[in-house]
Structure to design on (379 residues):
């Protein structure tokens, strides 16, 4: 009998369907470097001895050409059925083209919480040590809500007229407009998630990040809800930071921070900033969670210029796999895999170029990292 899922994730599904000897997992390789890091991760996960049945699912530009959509319904159906997915990065066209598959997938499945641990492993190239920050990013609203009006459209013109009447403020007629909704409901949900996480994992502090001095009705609402929720958790310290100040403080004294809870856009930016503090995007994992579904994926994108070169670091995706194992209740396998990854980093021989900035010519490739991690597993 396999152990129950981690209670912090509050899974409400009947787990018996996926708690047999084999876990059925939706596997989304993505595009760009996605297929390479996904394959490396699949190999190390299987080498832990946990049994998986992978259900492949394809998304992105290539799929759009054949299916007419970059995110076919069957992908969402597969995740809803299997409850758990492991996902590689997917390219989003810049400025035009289809909307982000990543954002649409999270919103369609109600994966309201994005959990991104950033921790320093011995041997990573970073001037910092002893960082152990967890970013909790709201995934459903903010400027990522996808409510946008293109310059010159009748909808944009109507909105400009309405705003002018309602607020007395002029918007230039040649403006494109993106709407930033921040609700009390989603703010409460994400801040509670952050505090529940902090309580469950004995974290000492939650920092809410916002720009409430400028956006009084959106970020101001987020902050006032965060202050209210914080009162329900008297054992956990609470503070807030304005996002620009937060960036500076994270660079100067990151050890001050523990759990960070924030809106969608700030969470996206701070995730990359914190990844930079702990050695880069190659070692920054993540999970997108609802009460009953989970999609594990690295923080990084599809890094198109490295596609097919067997060059990039698969560890961010492998560490997302560690998070998945913990979620599945496979605590021993999770610890074994994380220790093996940490040992490969500490040894510094079989690592990719990003972890060898002084001697990138001695770096190994994506699949060789998988070989090295497998060799370090305690079986
Ligand atoms: P990116 O994260 O793909 O890459 C930025 C740089 O980080 C790379 O050029 C590389 O130097 C480094 N990097 C990233 N992953 C690495 C790894 N595993 N090992 C070593 N170095 C790594 O960001 P980008 O270039 O801004 O975005 C590329 C595409 O990815 C865009 O289309 C973007 O929309 C998309 N994207 C997708 C996701 C996702 O699928 N969840 C997330 C972020 C960006």
């Amino acid at each position: 009998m396999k152990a129950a899922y981690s209670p912090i994730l509050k899974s409400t599904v009947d787990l018996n369907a996926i708690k047999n000897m084999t876990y059925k997992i939706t596997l989304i390789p993505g595009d760009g470097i996605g297929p390479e890091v996904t394959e490396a991760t699949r190999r190390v996960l299987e080498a832990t001895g946990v049994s998986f049945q992978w259900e492949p699912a394809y998304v992105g530009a290539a799929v759009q050409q054949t299916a007419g959509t970059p995110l076919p319904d069957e992908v969402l159906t597969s995740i809803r059925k299997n409850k758990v997915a492991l996902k590689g990065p997917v390219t989003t066209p810049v400025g035009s083209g289809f909307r982000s598959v990543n954002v649409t997938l999270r919103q369609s499945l109600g994966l309201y919480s994005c959990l991104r641990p950033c921790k320093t492993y011995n041997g990573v190239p970073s001037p910092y040590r002893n960082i152990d920050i967890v970013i909790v990013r709201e995934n459903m609203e903010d400027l990522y809500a996808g409510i946008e009006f293109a310059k010159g459209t009748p909808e944009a013109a109507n909105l400009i007229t309405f705003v002018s009447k309602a607020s007395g403020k002029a918007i230039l007629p040649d403006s494109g407009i993106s709407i930033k909704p921040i609700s009390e409901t989603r703010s409460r949900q994400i801040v509670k998630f952050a505090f529940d996480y902090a309580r469950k994992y004995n974290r000492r502090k939650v920092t809410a990040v916002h720009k409430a001095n400028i956006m009084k009705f959106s970020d101001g609402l987020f902050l006032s809800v965060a202050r209210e929720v914080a009162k329900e958790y008297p054992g956990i310290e609470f503070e807030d930071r304005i996002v620009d100040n937060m960036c500076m403080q994270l660079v100067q004294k990151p050890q001050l921070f523990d759990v960070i809870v924030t809106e969608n856009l700030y969470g996206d930016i701070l995730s990359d900033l914190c990844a930079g503090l702990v050695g880069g995007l190659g070692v920054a994992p993540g999970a997108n969670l609802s009460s009953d579904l989970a999609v594990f994926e690295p923080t990084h994108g599809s890094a198109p210029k490295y596609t097919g070169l067997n060059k990039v670091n698969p560890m961010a995706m492998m560490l997302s796999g560690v998070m998945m194992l913990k979620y599945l209740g496979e605590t021993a396998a999770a610890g074994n895999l994380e220790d093996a990854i940490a040992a490969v980093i500490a040894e510094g021989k079989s690592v990719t170029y990003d972890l060898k900035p002084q001697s990138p010519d001695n770096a190994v490739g994506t699949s060789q990292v998988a070989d090295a991690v497998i060799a370090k597993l305690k079986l």
